[in-house]
Design goal:
heterodimer; A: about 400 residues; mainly alpha; 15 helices; B: about 500 residues; alpha/beta; Rossmann fold; 3 domains
């Protein structure tokens, strides 16, 4: 909100309700961790070891930080310091595609559309970026990288636009069509990876993208932290700006909140549905692009690891608000990234993180459980229409 | 005479509001108590307390002289209290019998539903109270008036002898209201006691034995209908004197703003519900469209505002055809539309008031510059309109859904009147509103007329049509039966036309 001298300022009430909105997810995460702890104890492991490993795996070990700084100041060697910040940056790396994909689903929700197709859009975006990344040669980075990103966004946008158009024109429900588009994307990528886009090597993967198409990394290897994370934050801000500060965003939110009133007010429903699905597709496509160009540099089979489906949970967790999605994506990034260490160091199966994530989602989806647990008085907040009836 | 139900000192607070404060209510056995109050006066909260849906913060309830605790609808039913909700709680795809037995299903051999037993009991209840209904009919096939009977049967089937009727006439046609009053009479004769919740003054005076008036959560007073007049009740409800008759000069009509010729429109289910309608609306006059609801008025308005396409005929707005155009184009030509269903079309309930106040003009200066919305003018516009149209709200940032019905309607009126308009189309402009809001909105409509706007008012309330119109068109089965001068029209004449009968024809047949 701009805090310029408006004739009337938003009242404090709005701020305290924001506090409330943050409190529920916060308590949901806490409760998820507590129940996760019970499960860990029940499975015979040590909770402190487990959560200790989770913490050092996602944020890094404070001891190593200190050692890293000491060796840096005494010898000027950055090696230890880089090792110390590795877990933290890896968490951010993991969070990057989550942010993009979460924004994709959240944007759909705002328009009353349920984009289950983020996974397929992710694949298409990744493949398009990879293709431009390895096949277009001789361009400087300043041209090549944006071109590769654009290809990903356009590929995803096309994949989102098709169900958007089918919905707007023929009333075909987007849930069915985005699922269909997912399968088309999966099989299409199988074919591309085993044929036209296959590299000369033994495995069915694409060639590596050229260095000019890679998202620049900020630290030497093994750190993979790259520009993608900041592009994701920029995307979140742009989505926020679009939804809440532009006339088209106002139309999108109106169509989502009450399509009859939107029509009454002279808004073009067809245009908005197609636009939103295209934008959602572009965002999910960029999730794939960021993963290819920033982290992996090639695309292989089963490349996505379910980012597009986790994105649905992220949008729910973030209440379809870009800021909420970023926070939810960071949470998932840290949990996922830390889980690897928890498994290797404390011997806790990585699935415990899935349990915690699942619990958090349940608590967010059914906030009355949290309100009941912690005796919080309920307040009415703006509800987002998730999806409307068939064919409407 | 005993008091069958007493509420004493009932107080219920919600965060920020006191919905009921120290409310006392007494229902005498075999009598009708009318509970009168504006929307938001606390009637519904009080009844929800009585029905166990809310727990009162203070006070107690006595049934037949015995203090009782009511923790939920089941307790209420056990005490013989039954409620007929304003919005029916029926399953449309089930039969009458199935709806009645829902929740207390008797079984044969412990497994199979005993529909026959229930149907038999329904027939007994029907005969006893004059509630004619076919137990095997599906709810979706029944008219609203009959659906209401099913609700009443549901309550009687559960052996209630204290009936709460929440705004029972809101959804009924005048004929159905007559029918309901007869049923109420029969119920009273067989010893039931009734609380009748309403904000319609005439009904109160027609049926009530006692009247209790609520305002702002408190009991303003209790009065017997013998001493009461419409004016007196209205001023008790609103807290000031209310002018129930709209003051207006005779119209000075100018040239035609809207000319409709031989219009045909299909509804959303593809039925041709408007069949060859022709009329015109001139500057500075109010054309009222009367008719029982569902005779094509809704689709007529949708066609005029671009929400439904024309199947045939022409519409000329200020001399130009609007046959192939969009709702936005029609808005931009200076048409204001107060829609029939304010929550479906008129407002986005989850948006703050300031956004609803610019819902149709958000893309224009000063609300938008280029593609960005301008908060400052949006806020100041809303502030100004809230003040000008007296919308009762804590501020312009609360969601429209938190306002009472009357204030929601004021938001729509304020928005639609805030841009330059040539034609006002007002569909059921005061449905479900309280006396104070009706008076206000009627005044605003007449003010627009006097400024030279052409006005089309569609209403199923004859009183409203008579109060506002200069000319009256009556619709029946998609056609206009006749267009009369308002000062020559009588209720009887209009009533016959609404039923599809030309008064001259009846004279001939005599």
């Amino acid at each position: 909100m701009s805090e310029t001298a408006t004739p009337s300022k938003k009242p404090n009430q709005t701020r305290s309700s924001l506090g409330q909105e943050l409190m529920i997810p916060g308590l949901a995460v806490l409760t998820g961790l507590i129940i996760g702890a019970i499960v860990i104890v029940a499975s015979g492991a040590n909770v402190f070891d487990a959560y200790g490993a989770l913490f050092t795996g996602s944020f890094g070990s404070p001891v190593k930080f200190i050692e890293g700084f000491q060796s840096f100041f005494s010898t000027g060697d950055t090696g230890d310091l880089i090792k110390a910040i590795y877990p933290f940056t890896e968490s951010l790396v993991t969070a990057t595609p989550y942010i993009f994909a979460g924004l994709s689903v959240a944007l759909g929700f705002r328009a009353g559309l349920f984009n289950i197709g983020a996974e397929g859009q992710f694949f298409i975006g990744a493949l398009c970026s990879a293709f431009v990344g390895y096949s277009v040669k001789g361009l400087p980075m300043i041209v090549h990288l944006p071109l590769a990103l654009l290809a990903g966004a356009l590929g995803g946008a096309l994949w989102g636009m098709i169900p958007g158009y089918l919905k707007a024109k023929f009333g075909a429900h987007e849930v069915v069509n985005t699922i269909m588009m997912n399968w088309i994307a999966f099989r299409l990528s199988d074919w591309l990876l085993s044929g036209p886009m296959r590299s000369s090597g033994f495995r069915p993967v694409t060639p590596n993208v050229l260095a000019t198409a890679e998202l620049p990394r900020f630290f030497p290897a093994p750190l993979r932290f790259n520009l993608g994370f900041f592009l994701a934050l920029l995307a979140a801000y742009l989505v926020y700006w679009f939804l809440f500060k532009t006339t088209t965003g106002f139309e999108v939110r109106s169509v989502g909140a009450n399509p009859d009133a939107a029509k009454y007010a002279g808004m073009n429903i067809v245009k908005n549905l197609v636009l939103v699905m295209s934008m959602a597709g572009a965002l999910a496509g960029l999730a794939g692009s960021a993963q290819v160009l920033g982290v992996d540099h090639w695309v292989g089979q089963g490349f996505s690891a379910g980012y597009g489906f986790d994105a649905i949970a992220l949008a729910l967790l973030g209440k379809s608000h870009p800021a909420g999605v970023v926070m939810a994506a960071l949470l998932f990034g840290f949990l996922r990234s830390g889980a690897t260490d928890m498994q290797s160091m404390a011997g806790i199966p990585i699935d415990i993180i899935s349990i915690i994530q699942g619990l958090v989602i349940v608590f967010i989806a059914a906030p009355d459980i949290i309100r009941w647990l912690y005796r919080i008085r309920s307040i009415k907040t703006e509800e987002t229409v998730l999806t409307r009836g068939w064919g409407k | 005479m005993t008091n069958v139900l007493e509420l004493r000192g009932i107080t219920k607070r919600f965060p920020g509001v006191v919905a009921n404060e120290n409310v006392d209510i007494t229902l005498r056995e075999g009598k009708i108590l009318a509970l009168l109050g504006e929307n938001g006066a606390g009637k519904t909260t009080l009844m929800n307390i009585l029905y166990g849906l809310y727990k009162p913060d203070e006070g107690h309830i006595s049934v037949r002289g015995k203090q009782v605790e009511i923790h939920g609808p089941n307790d209420a039913i056990a005490q013989g209290i039954g409620m007929v909700h304003q919005h029916f709680m029926l399953v449309p795809v089930m039969t009458v019998t199935e709806n009645v037995m829902l929740g207390i299903e008797p079984t044969k051999n412990g497994v199979f539903l005993d529909r026959e037993k229930v149907a038999k009991r329904i027939r007994e209840i029907s005969d006893q109270y004059g509630l004619e209904v076919n137990p095997n009919a599906y709810i979706k096939d029944l008219p609203v008036g009959i659906q209401q009977r099913v609700e009443i049967i549901k309550v009687l089937y559960r052996q209630a002898d204290i009936l709460i009727l929440d705004e029972p006439t809101a959804v009924l046609t005048p004929q159905e209201v007559e029918g309901l009053f007869k049923i109420i009479e029969t119920l009273i004769k067989s010893g039931k006691s009734i609380i009748f919740i309403t904000h319609k003054l005439k009904e109160v005076l027609a049926v009530a034995d006692d009247i209790t008036v609520l305002r702002l959560g408190r009991v303003v007073g209790s009065i017997s209908p013998k001493e009461a007049t419409s004016e007196k009740l209205a001023s008790m409800m609103v807290g000031r004197d209310v002018n129930l008759v709209v003051d207006k000069q005779s119209a000075k009509p100018g040239e035609a703003v809207l000319v409709v010729e031989n219009l045909f429109v299909r509804d959303e289910l593809q039925h041709m519900t408007v069949q060859g309608v022709s009329f015109e609306v001139r500057k500075g006059e109010v054309l009222g469209v009367a008719g029982v609801q569902g005779n094509g008025q809704t689709e007529l308005v949708y066609a005029l505002t671009g929400l439904l396409p024309l199947e045939g005929g022409t519409i000329h707005l200020l001399g130009e055809s609007i046959r192939h155009t969009t709702p936005r184009d029609i808005l931009e030509r200076g048409v204001a539309h107060i829609p029939e269903d304010r929550q479906r079309h008129g407002l986005i309930l989850t948006f703050p008031i300031h956004d609803n106040m610019m819902l149709c003009t958000y893309y224009k200066n000063p609300f938008a510059k280029g593609i960005t919305l301008q908060e400052k003018p949006i806020f100041s516009n809303a502030e100004e309109l809230v003040r000008q149209y007296d919308v009762r709200t804590p501020n312009i940032f609360v969601n429209a859904g938190t306002l009472s019905g009357g204030n929601q309607q004021k938001v729509i009126v304020a928005r639609e009147f805030s841009r330059p308009i040539e034609l006002l189309i007002a569909s059921q402009p005061t449905r479900g509103l309280d006396v104070g809001s009706i008076e206000y909105i009627h005044k605003q409509i007449i003010k627009k007329r006097d400024e030279g706007t052409g006005v089309l008012v569609v209403s199923s309330e004859l009183d409203e049509i008579l109060a506002l119109s200069d000319r009256i068109a009556v619709m029946y089965k998609g056609q206009i039966m006749d267009i009369l001068d308002a000062n020559k029209a009588t209720k009887e004449h209009l009533g016959l036309l609404m039923a599809g009968i030309h008064p001259s024809e009846t004279q001939i047949s005599k």
